[in-house]
Specification:
The structure holds 2 protein chains of 2 kinds. Chain A has helices spanning 2-28, 43-52, 59-71, 86-121, 126-140, 143-157, 172-201, 204-211, 216-254, 259-269, 272-300. Chain A is mainly alpha-helical. In chain A, helix 1 runs antiparallel to helix 11. The mean pLDDT of chain A is 83. Chain B has helices at residues 2-11, 15-37, 71-107, 109-123, 127-137, 142-169, 172-179, 184-192, 197-220, 232-241, 248-275. Chain B starts with a helix and ends in a 6-residue tail after the last helix. Classes of the chains: A mainly alpha, B mainly alpha.
């Protein structure tokens, strides 16, 4: 297992490196420099700026400098937020984004698996149809539509929950963003769970357990849940990527000062280093989460051999 | 062609396919035809009717936006753009995915191992962020959106097509073709590809909503289509900013976007049951 973990860790390095190279080249292939503006600066000043940001060096040298700094946790200076390093900006914003994403993920798994299991136990009943209709709606409404609609009805019209992010609103300010972020994932996980749970419940060993007089709860809890969870576990990787993408939108809509917010403003302001840094951090997150998911999969399913 | 009409005949009995397909066809036709019937165009600013609510009598069927432009015509235009981007992007991913998957599956051996290893590596990339980076760095370019979305979505297609090709390769008719001296390329194009139609149709229907999501996500962030052109995502973005004073600007394009996505999802589900393509991505 330790060997497998190590091998997968080493395997993740080329992927990450690919992201860094791709992103770096893209940014440097950009037409025009990052400091082009309406005002024409004297040549000496431009040269000074270029030298300060090492933009006068040849590209391979710049890349090596960037990479060796990045490995040590320094993603360079922000081009727009002067006086700040990109790493400082990300470090300040990351905790809130991670809190948001983790809560959404937790909610999605708990409710998605619960609803999917109930639907599978009562296959083709009214309950099943209602759950599946909700799930179909859930996967069809994009986060950037459901989030503002929730704000419009629950916050603006009914005034039950805070619409935005302010220091005074406490924990209730988290509720709407987390729900908006989790809804599509709840829907997807419910569909996955239902399908695999039905398959597991139809298998021979469940029939045996039933024949021995075990109750529905015990069958689900001790025999069916674990194997039925396998497709859900392998969906975790894409789900994490989807939640990261969704959090960009949700942070934007609710005005949450997270990484996604910086990403959007950075993208619109052409703050190349900031966007580059965030892409790399996101990629590292996705790749490492995928690794964790793979390891968990092996723990749940002993049939998976760590080769 | 006979086979296709037979398939179409059998599919008629399936409500998930017929109803959602019918709604989508109706939306597409209305989106193309209706702007001609409306007295307004997508650019004209009606200064007397800024942010007016939807009324059927007043000429602005879906109301107007904060610049007094007719929301009905703009929404129809948004649907056109959204569907066009999705179709072209899906076509791009279809061509890349089928060719790549069929070659990997048919040639097999080391070529297959390397090609699928590349797919695995690309799979782990958070592509959407690379696409955003692409949009940031280069001028917002309509063509780029197609290519970028197509480039994300071909991976699933390649995997599924490869799996299917692996089993097709062993069939007698392929062996017969090989024995009679048909070239590899010709076998892939003339004998393998036509037998992939079932799975490919299902997965194209499932990639279309994904392409729509990516396009509208980019447009929502202001990185996709640029004013005064519009798409459903851009309209939702405008609606979010006006939601308190003009909720129709959010609810109409948002609702239509959800309806279109839902129809494609139902259509894909129905087709999957229909072709009984049991492989999941």
């Amino acid at each position: 297992m330790a060997q497998y973990t190590l091998r997968r860790l080493l395997g993740a390095i080329p992927t990450l490196l690919l992201v860094v190279v791709l992103a770096f080249l893209l940014v440097h292939a950009a037409p025009g420099g990052p400091f082009d503006s309406e005002r024409v600066l004297p040549a000496e000043i431009e040269a000074n700026i270029a030298a300060y940001y090492h933009l006068d060096e040849p590209l391979p040298q710049q890349f090596i400098r960037y990479l060796s700094n990045a490995v040590r946790g320094d993603l360079g200076p922000s081009y727009r937020y002067r006086d700040y390093r990109v790493s400082e900006l990300i470090a300040a914003a990351l905790p809130i984004s991670i809190l948001l994403g983790a809560l959404a993920m937790l909610l999605a798994v708990v409710i998605g698996v619960g609803a999917g299991t109930i639907a599978a136990l009562r296959q083709n009943s009214i309950v099943d149809r209602v759950v599946m209709a909700f799930a179909m709606t859930g996967i069809s409404i994009p986060v950037f539509v459901i989030a503002p609609v929730l704000v419009l009805f629950l916050a603006v019209k009914l005034n039950w929950l805070p619409a935005g992010w302010s220091a005074t609103t406490g924990a209730s300010r988290l509720l709407l963003p987390v729900v908006a972020l989790a809804l599509p994932q709840i829907a997807y996980i419910a569909r996955l769970t239902r399908a695999s749970m039905i398959e597991v419940l139809n298998s021979a060993y469940i029939r045996t357990a039933r024949a021995q007089g075990l109750g529905t709860y015990a069958i689900v809890r001790y025999h069916a849940l674990k194997p039925a969870m396998l497709p859900v576990v392998s969906y975790m990787g894409p789900a994490i990527a989807a939640i990261l993408t969704g959090s960009v939108v949700v942070e934007q809509i609710f005005g949450i000062p997270g990484v996604g917010q910086f990403f959007v403003t950075g993208a619109l302001n052409r703050d190349y280093t900031l966007v580059l840094g965030i892409v790399i951090v996101y990629a590292a997150l996705v790749v490492s989460m995928n690794l964790v998911v793979d390891l968990i999969y092996g723990v749940i399913d002993p049939r998976v051999r760590y080769r | 062609m006979i086979a296709l009409t037979q398939i179409a005949g059998r599919a008629r009995g399936n409500y998930a396919i017929t109803v959602s397909g019918g709604i989508l066809a109706a939306i597409a036709v209305i989106a193309i035809v209706a702007p001609w019937l409306s007295p307004n165009d997508y650019l004209h600013t009606d200064f007397d009717n800024i942010l007016s609510s939807p009324r059927f009598g007043g000429g602005h069927w879906f109301g107007t936006d904060d610049l007094g432009r007719d929301l009905f015509v703009r929404t129809m235009m948004g649907i056109q753009v959204t569907l066009l981007v999705a179709l072209v992007a899906s076509f791009v991913s279809l061509v890349i995915g089928v060719l790549y998957g069929a070659i990997a599956g048919y040639v097999g051996g080391r070529v297959d191992a390397v090609m699928m290893r590349i797919v695995d590596t690309l799979y782990a990339l958070p592509f959407i962020f690379i696409v955003i980076l692409l949009m940031v760095v280069f001028e917002r370019n309509f063509l780029l959106i197609f290519v970028a979305i197509g480039a994300i979505n071909w991976l699933d297609m390649a995997r599924i097509v490869r799996g299917q090709t692996l089993s097709l390769r062993e069939k007698e008719f392929i062996e017969a073709a090989r024995l009679t001296g048909v070239s590899t390329f010709r076998i892939i194009v003339r004998h393998i590809a036509p037998n992939l139609i079932g799975v490919v149709v299902v997965y194209v229907t499932l990639t279309i909503p994904q392409a729509i999501l990516v396009e509208s996500f980019l447009s929502f962030l202001g990185l996709g289509i640029q004013e005064p052109q519009t798409s459903l995502g851009a309209l939702v973005d405008a609606g979010v900013n006006q939601k308190e004073s003009a909720s129709w600007m959010l609810l109409i394009p948002g609702g239509l976007l959800a309806l279109i996505l839902m129809c494609f999802n139902f259509l894909g589900d129905g087709l999957r049951d229909f072709f009984d393509a049991r492989q999941s991505p």
